[in-house]
Every structure is written in C-alpha cells, then in structure tokens.
Queue: 4 jobs
Job 1
Amino acid sequence: MALSPSHERPLDVPGLLFIGGAFVEGDGAASVEHVNPSTGRPQAAVPVGSASDIQRAVKAAKVAQRVWMDMGPHARARSFRRLGELLEANREQLAFLGARESGIPVALPMMDIALGWVDHYMGWIDKIEGSYGESWPAPGFNYTRREPYGVVGVIIPWNGPLMATCMMALPAIAAGNGVVLKPPALAPFVALRIAELAHEAGFPAGLFNVVPGEAEAGEALVAHPDVGKVTFTGGEGVARRVMATAAACLKPVALELGGKSANLVFEDADLEAAAVQAVYGALGLSGQGCVNPTRLLVHRTRYDEMVARAAAVAASMKVGDPFDAATVAGPVICQSACDRILGIIAQARREARLVAGGERLQGELADGFFIQPTVFADVQPGSALEQNEVFGPVLSITPFADDAQALAIANGTRYGLGAYLHTNDLDRAHAFAERLDAGYVNINGFASMAPGAPFGGYRQSGFGRVGGWAGMEEYLQLKNVFVARRDGKR
C-alpha cells in the first residue's frame, strides 16, 4: 500500500515559537529534525526552546493574564466560542498536522472530542462562585473567592496533542490564567497552530504561549517564580523531576501519568462487544494512550473463546497510512519507541503465548514505524508484560478463577489510572467500581474522556483531575475575605 501524497505536502506551520501573540525566533540556536513517523524521513526543523525563551513566554503570559481578567467573563466566553468556531473551520488542517507529526489517523474523532472540551469549559467561565458565612468569634462576615493562579505551566506529551492541548491548557485559561505550554519536539505543530487560532479568536496577545522543548525548557518552566502551578502529563521518571523542581519552590503540581489498566470480563458478559472494545481500546492509536485497557482479565470459563475473539479482532484491525480513511492505527511515534516496543514483544514471546501480531510491518510501510496489533495470552500476573506500561500496540490476556482473584490481579500493579469491567450483574458492577484502585472506571463501555466528568489517577498514575468542575478547581485558588461589623453585633 503506497502512502498518501499528503506526506509530501508542506506543513505550513512556521518552525518557530509562539510567544506574545506571534511566531518568534528562539533565543538559542538549537533545533532538531522532526521525523514523519509514517515515512521515517525528516520533514521539518523544530526549535528547541531554552530557559530564556520560557522567561519571555512567562513574562508575556503574566501581562496578558491581567488583560484577560479585565475583559470580564462574558467577553472571555465569546473568545472561547470563537476559538471553537476556528478549530472547526480548521478541522482538516489540524487532522493533517496530527497525522504528520504523531501518525494519528485522520478518521479518529479527535476534533470532536477536543471541541467538547472547548464547549464545556466555555460554560464554566461565568459560573465561578464563592461562599458566604457569618464570622465567629469576631463579629462580621466571611466570604470566599476562587481566583486564578496567574500563570500556569502546562507540559503535554506527544501522543494526542489536539486533545491534550484542549484538555490541559484551555481549562486553565477558562479559570482566568495565562498559559505557557511546552509540547515536546516530537509533536509541536498542532499546539502551535491552536495557539495561533486562540490569538485570532480574541485571546490577548501572550495569554497562550507555546514553547516546544525538552528538559531545559521544562525545568525552567517548573522553576519560574511567576508560574503559580504546573500540570504535567507524561511518564513517571520525568514526573519525579517535575515534583523535585516544584518542591524546591513549594509550587503545586498536577500529574496525569501512565497506566496499566485492567479490563475484566466476567462469565456473564457479552463477549462479542467486550472483545471489540478490549482490542480497539487497548490497541487503537497504536496503543499509545495512558488509559488504554492493556490488561484483559477473563473468567476461566470464557477464556479460550475470548482469546480467540481478541486474536481475530486484532488481526482484522487496519494498520497503515494515517491518511487512509480506513486506518484505525498508524505508526508509533519514532524509531526509538519502535525499537523499544519490539524488544518488549521479543521478551514476552519467551514468557507468554503470542496469538496475534508481533512483527513490524514490511513492504511499502517498512520505512515507517508500524507495528502489527499484538496480543499475548497466558500472561502471568507479576510478569514484566503484565506490570509495565508498553505504550505500544500490545494487549496481554490473563485468566482468573473468581471475583476475588480478578480484583487482586486488577489492583496488583503500581498504577491506578483506569479500569474496565464487563458484566450483566449490577451488584457485581457496583461492588467492583467501589473496590478497584483506579480513578476512572468504565462498566460495559468506554466514556471516551467525557469533558464533563473528572479524569485522573490513583497511586503512581498521578494526582489532580481534568474534566468537569473538578478540572476547573485545579486552576483556582481559594481565598477567604473577612469583613468586620462596625456596629459590633454578632
């Protein structure tokens, strides 16, 4: 299958930073080649932001944040509405950029999900409330205010830049903050374009800045004294560095980290529906999702049938050119990720039973980073494949004997992001929802990151929430105001 001519089109996004409402050169000379994951060939030079670039961006955000608040809530909401319109008008371009930078299939409804986040947080802008109460022992009145931090640093990953930008940066702006967003050099183009559209929508110049970069820019952003809070989405190792840097200046952080989410299929489940969700949920987006249900746990009476169904569904998945409307899984992000995932598969072959996939795609796709949807059965609890996040198209299947064992295996990792279960027993569904150590539980379906619902993890999957009012509160500080009564009455 030949790749689409869309891989030869120019990207039409400047290889620059977006600071103060304009594309600007970086202070440093550093840049990296961006490689198209579908072709394995360089396609653009990406500037790598420096500490001084972060300094400029924070300064711009600090000034713009005051302008944003002075506009009043209705004008801010109008700007959000206009941004949604501009995102819709540029739907095709943003899908094109996502396919070119991250290999995201254009057929996936990324824009629809992103627009849901814009609409939801537009609705909260004029609904930020406090509370009132009488004071004791001093006579008077107490009321509370929820106020923005000022400037928020947002560090996003490469696996879904359109969704990540709208999920993480826009709630902070809706709450009244300025934002400096740092995407990785692996995926800078979508975020840069969204920032440009936000400026066109009426966001004050400097309210939303984008500085692609790596460790230097990230450290500078977290440590900057004018950044009131930092939200980070990514892996555990970098999260520890973020926390250590933030701890030195006593700065709050929110972390959305990895997962090894269990998907429990009980003996009374609808196996046909469960198999499709299990495979597409785990291996869609080439398995590069933090909340993907990558551990399939099946009651032993339905185990063999479920293994056969999962293998068949995986074998039928269309993997290939992200510009093909039939593609559901494109390439993984880069050569090093491809090599790492194939190494994990090679190790797992010695410990479990391979029932689907397991190879890199060849032929006309051989130069890209394409890996077959891969399914392993008979995966032992506690094994490396069962415990560690792959972040690639690999699903593990493990049998369980009863509810107690299912719960023990499901809760038996260091993660706690998502959990899924399939059953027609309502009592069991509610009991497991209560006892699963995960912040995001789905029963007989998948909520698809609903913007009105809080999303976040337990344990090593992080803390803090995005979505709903909880996601708005992440970016607001609570202030108490006391007003004394001059007449001395209580």
Job 2
Amino acid sequence: MASTDARSAAGVNGPTRARIGVKTLREDRWWLAPAGTFVVFAAFIVYSTWRAFSGANYFSEPYLSPFYSPCLSNECVPGSSDFGQPFGGWPLSPALLILVFPLGFRLTCYYYRKAYYRAFWLSPPACAVAEPHTKYTGETRFPLIAQNLHRWFWYAAVVVALVLSYDVLLAFGPAEGESDGIHMGLGTLIMLVNVVFIWMYTLGCHSCRHIMGGRLRHFSQHPVRYKLWGWASKLNGQHARWAWFSLVSVALTDFYIYLLATGAFDDPRFF
C-alpha cells in the first residue's frame, strides 16, 4: 500500500513529473473548450433547476415536457398523467420524482465526467495543462466513488427513453379543440427529434456497449450480442456529439412546451 507521502506527491508536483514552472507550454487557445463547456453546463443547470422547481407550464395537450414525464403526482395538471398518480402525497414539483434518473445518468456518464471535471474542477483543464490540485485520488473516495452507479442509472435511463417515446406517439394525437385521429404539429417534430437524440445518446453509452458484448470470450458463439455490440460501438464513437445534442434538445423541447402552455403562441399544426 502506498504511503501517505507517496499519495500526496502524486499530483503535478510529483517526483516523476517534469519541472516546468509555467502552467503550460501550449500556445493555442486551449481554454476555449473548458470555458465553453462551463458556460453551457451552467446555463443548463440554471434553466433546468428553475423549470424543475416551478411545477407549472409543462403540459400543452398533447405535449408533455420531458422534464415532467412521466407525471406521477396528484399535483400533475389534468391530462398529463398517462401512467396514473401513485405519489399522491408528494408535496413538491412532480419533476423532482423523475429528473433524478436522467440527471444521475448524465452526471455519471463517462463523457460528461471528463467534460465537467475539466470545466468545473480543472482536473486537468486541458491536455498538457497543469491542474491546480496537489494530489490525485481518482474516483476511489466519496462522493466520486458513486460514479460506479452509472450502469444502474443506464437501466433507468432506458425506461425514461421508452416513456418519452410513448409521449411522441401521443403527440401525434389531437390537441384541444381538434377532432380524433392522427395529427401533427411543430411540437410533434420537436419531441420526435429530441427522443431520437436521447436514444442515440443512451444506446451509445459505454455501459450499454459493455452490456451488449462485455465478458464474451467468443463473439462467434453469440452472433446477436455481437451485432448489438457493433451497433452500440458505432454510436459510442460519436458519444460526445449525442451527449451535447440530447442535452440541448431536451431543454429546447421543454422550453417550446413552456411557451405553448403560457399562451405565448399557438402550436403550428400541419395536419
């Protein structure tokens, strides 16, 4: 077991590190990426926190905000509870019953870890840029050891994605004042694009790739899992892209439904 002195010397001032006095020798604008990540993440945190705690303006028939789906509290507005209201005594916003699962999935995601470790904790802020911390313990202590829950959050994220897919099907239904039948509005398309991005992000997850093909000694004996592993691997190659696309799309989808619910404008209906 490493001694205390050895652990404390494992940071940028460790005995095996080059003795370079400056923060970095890079001459490019290396700070743009972590700064941009910080701004976008901070904006999403502020917006999603406001919307999650507001508990209002999240349903405009037939559209339900992804922040509130499924809506399981008796505080849900009429028409928004497609799976019942099992949490009848819940005193807070209905979104707080649901968001813990997609939020936990994203917080423990391998890509997001890299992004916010660099942007918020400067650990390190960029490649070949010294971090300000004098020691490194990795994800072996609380709270970062909880990152190991990522696989379990993935299972919950799949359930959430299925529910959001069902919401898209409902979005092809009639809005208030329309007759029965299949209808489609701009909100339908926005929700459809959002759920596609969410599925691309969820199925391209590193844990999904491991679940599909991990611990197999012979792919030839498991052709179905090998095919699924191949598909997940292709999505995994663009995991960062789907992570960003889905993060932005879920916020825009919620904001669009918020505008409809507040009466800012009417949803354009195509048929």
Job 3
Amino acid sequence: MSQKPILISGGGLASLLFAQALLRHNIPFEIYERDASFDVRGHGYRLRLSDEGLNAIESVLSPESWQRFYDKCGKTGGSGFAAFNAVTGEQTDHQTPETLASRDGKIVGIARGEMRRLFLDGCEEHLHWSKHVVGYELTPDGVRAVFADGTKSIEGSLLVGGEGIHSRVAKQLSGGKLKVYDTGARGIHGQAPTTAFKGLGEGVFRLRDDSRPEGDLWIITNVRAKDMDDPSLQFGWTMIGPIKAPNDDYTVVGKQAADLAKSLTANWDPRFKPLFDEMVESEAAFWKITCSSPNGVPEWTNEPRVTVIGDAVHSMTPAGGIGANTAVQDSALLGRLIGEAGGYKEGITAAYEKEMRVYGGNAVKTSYGMAKSSMGIGELVNTI
C-alpha cells in the first residue's frame, strides 16, 4: 500500500484489538512492544466482560474471529456476587445482582493472556518486540516513534499510544496533564486448579478478612461450574489489601508472592484454603493498584497525528471490572473512525478524543467510587 502505516505503541489488549480493526480495513500498521515476548511478565487476573465490552470486541473482529473468541470465554451462571467472611466462612450478604452485565444471563470472562493471544492473530508479522517507545517526533507529513535506544521508527501517518499506565506518549501528548495516581492499595494475583474451587460452587465470590489490624484483606474470584471438575484447567483469584512486596518490589513473581498469599490466609476457613494451598506458585504476581483522576479525562491541545487509548489515557482500579471493557471501546471507536475514512485523516483524533472523554471519564469515576466503598481506597495523592 502507498499510504503510511499507523504506528501503535504497546502490545496490550487495547493496542492489539485496534490493530485488528486496521487489519479488517486493510490499513497498514506496525506495533512496537517493549517486552521481548508475551512470556516476560505475568498477564494479570481474569477479566469479566461487560455487554459494552463484548459489543466493542464483536464490532471489530470478523464473524469467524469473534466466534473463536467467544467460544474461548468462560460463561458463569449470572447469580451475582456472594460475600463471605474469609475467617469464619459465614455468608455476610445474600446473592446480589451482578454489576457487570453480560450475555444470555451469563457472566462472561476470559484470561488476559488468552485474550491477548487471540487479538494477536493475523498481526504477528507487524509486531516488533523489544521496542520501548519513549516519545515521538513529528515530521512535516507524519510522525515517528522514538525508542529507548535512541533509534526511531519508520514514518507513520498516526501514532497511537497504548502502552499502559507508564505511557511516555501520553505524557508528551498531554504535556503532563495525564496523570496516574497510586491508590496505596496492593494486590496479589494467583491461580489454582479448578478442583480447588469446588468448595465454593458456581458464581462470583468476594471473601473479606476484617480481622487484620493493618486493614481489611479481600479476595475476588469467579467460578465456572462446567470447568470445576477438570484439573487441567485453572481459575484465578485477586487479593487486595495492605500487602507489602519484598523490598517494595512489585515486579516480583512466583514463589515469593505465593508464600505471602499463603501466610496472609493461614487462618482462613477450610472452605477457602485450597485456593491458596493448591495454588500454582509460578503464576503468582504482585501488583500496584493505580487510578487516573476521577475528575475526568483532562483536555489537552489536540495533535492530529497522535492520540492515546486504554490505560494510557484512563487507568482504573479493578473495582467493577470496568477498565478493560472501556479500553476495548477505545479500540473499536478509533478503529471505526479510521476504517470509515479509509485511513488516517485530519480530524479523526479530535473526534475520537471528544467521545472518549465522556465515557472514559465516567468509567474512571465509577471505578474509583466503587473502590473507595468496597476496598477501603482513600484519596488519591501521589502520582507514579
């Protein structure tokens, strides 16, 4: 093709789904990912997909790709949350309506890593590993990505920053107005064979330990009935609370994270213990819980050749599972605008940002409000 490619910074979910939109419209693109492979870092917890998120994904993928994606998703009976005291095993409320809508009366979920690999399908030859984008350079008729080693990309028609909460593209584009805050909360992600979850049964569960003087400890997990008897499969859980990683290093994965999770839950009810006693230690990972400003996505002077998607522009807490669902809406919206124009056209980034600020800002506010009420997260003070 004669047109310049669209450059994409980062190979996460939002970036890869956006690439799928370009692929369907035969618009050239190149993706630059800082990691050397998908296996360098943990992919994080399992995602629950809202109706809005599913609609966005379906609008981007071909019918065949969509069916393959949806078949890979797990579907849990939509009975809603059940909350328990983690130490006594007592149910602390009755089943409540699920806050994240899903299809056919089911809660739909998929592991981040599996979702990422599905979105990569067909884009492999355009993904460049070990390319850490640290900024960009505008040219008279395009833009180039600048890498950490001082080299630059080929000239593109547009640069889309989708490299997450530490996006250097977002910082440069917004003049520092886009900020990510440390909520002070920490988490551990873990996985165990599905048989470890049989004591819970099917549903979405929240376990709370309020006996700790340093603060409450929470676990969220999702159990799918049809997979519960297959020991070859794994379910994930997410632990949130006053957790401190060794040497304050939240890049630690594996046994150290697993050992801390086991020690924190040592006095929990026997019904819940298998989730930790039988966990796959190599899959355990620490993480910091961050959030963009809940006051809304800030305004910056639009740059027609550069924009941002996903966590790079609206990072959220895990409360409500809203973040990834909003990120894929970015991918679908920007992909649709570019597809309808047949490629890059001036005015596309301004139109995208105007619409994204509305739903993206509302999503951050909602997620932060839920985190304050259910996870004990306080006021946002320090940026990361």
Job 4
Amino acid sequence: MQQMTISSINVNGLRAAAKKDPGFLQWLAATDADVVCLQEVRAEPEQLPAGVVAPEGWHVVLAPAAARGRAGVAVFSRAEPEAVRVGFGEAEFEDSGRYVEVDLGPVSVASLYLPSGEVGTERQEEKERFMEAFLPFLVKRRMEVEAQGRDLVVCGDWNIAHREADLKNWRGNLKNSGFLPMERAWLDRVLDEAGYVDVVRGLYPDQEGPYSWWSYRGRAFDNDTGWRIDYHMATPGLAERVVEGRVERYRDRAERWSDHAPVTVRYRLV
C-alpha cells in the first residue's frame, strides 16, 4: 500500500445512522477510504446488525462506553490491525468510549471523541479533566511512535473550534463550550507543545471552515452556519505526506445521516 485514505465522522448514533437511506451503510459501500474512524457510536456490538458490526471487506474495532448509550468510538479498516489499544492510560476515561488506536503498517490511527462540555456544569469539568490528562499522553505517544520510525494520526471529534475561521458565528460563541479561550489555548498546545499538525487547516489556510458540523436546529446546514471541530491531528512526518483532504459535505438536508460530515484525507506512506 503506497497510500492510505482515512476518513473520520461522528455518526451521532451508529444504529440510527445505519437505518437511514441514504445512511452510513450506503456511504461505507461507496467510500474509497482504507480506514474509517467513528465517534459517538452509542451502541454495544450485540446491538448492531451484522452488516454494521462485521461488514464484508472490513475489520471492525469497537470501543463502547461502559455507560450504555453514551459516547463510543470505532475504527473500520480494510487491513487487519496489527495491534489495538483502548483508552490512553487514564483510569477515569479507560472505559468511557473516548479513544481507540490501531496499528496499520507504518501508521497508527486513532479515533477520538473528546467530551463536549457545557459551561458551568459537570460536563465541562469532565471535559477539562480529559484535556488535562490527554495532552501529556499526546506528547508521550508522539515520542513513542517516532522512536519506532512510525507515524500517528488522531482523527475525530475534538469538540473545540480552534480559530475564528473554524466557526461561522464565532462572536456569539465566545463564552460557550467549544470556543472558550482556555479550550483554544489547549489546542495551541496540541500543535505547539505536542507538535501535531492540523492537516485540513494546512490544506485550507485562508478559508473559513471547511465546516464539519451543523446544528439540526433552524437552517444552520442550509446557511452553512457550521463549526470545524473534526480534525486529523498528525505527527509532522505524516503531515508532510498529505496528498489531499476534504470535508464530504452533504449535497442537501435530505442526504444528511449525521449532524457531522466525514473528514477524509489521503496520505502518502512512502
């Protein structure tokens, strides 16, 4: 394999996404991705039909949350993973369905679902505890994979818009979770201190968006009043070998099977 195409999407409930037509299954059948990272799966393996949990031609790793009906991440890959790691070593989040990582040849691919948060609530406190624990893990994990001569990309719903260009109505969200100064500063540290690269922003440095999430409320999708909160954060060596990337925005509301759209990037491996 000379190239690897990786797609990531928060499915907003895999059972619901798979029941829609068009929906997740139609998208999966049509995608040219080699790896698909899912977030907010919200299902145990036994709750999913065989066509979803074991689709022909795919190897599936599910990491559901211990709290049933919440969170959950997954990786679908055409090649069988050589290794699988669930969680990132923090006891509070070990079985929370927030992080799964697989080894596929020279690249480790992770699916991340960072807590969404809500200002003034326990959800925001949980989000901030997660962020505090996750940053040192990212630093350590980059050092480990690079020492092995390998690369890492952490794909998923990071639930933070980094810059003003990453959400349409940034002025109205300055005090809301997802665009708080401390959250944005934390993403600065992911890029500067941990040394990861925001691959899609690198491809579209001067563009507003491309957005990957739109509220179901009102006409947010029709007006493209979105947020860019779904990222491919790659180690520098892999980021230098990006061929192309895009957000697979739905053509219209009738085609939407999630409030997020797939973020797809093709990487050169050699």
